Amino acid sequence: MIEVTRLKGTKIFINAELIEMVEETPDTVITLTSGKKYIVSESGRDIIELVIDYKRKIHSLGVE
Length: 64
Known about the structure:
By secondary structure, the chain is α+β, with helices and mostly antiparallel strands. The protein has one helix at about 45-60, and strands at about 1-5, 10-15, 20-25, 30, 35-40.
């Protein structure tokens, strides 16, 4: 899960594995594989970094 901020300032957690698309229109819109969309204050580049960090953490859990 990644933590993002809705435009009104509330924090939500989104399953990074379900993100299909991130677009800036100019607001950042995250579209999940279910079709559900979330408008967030983070930039598209920030979302990408959050997903990369999440995947690094997940993959490092199995490596010792």
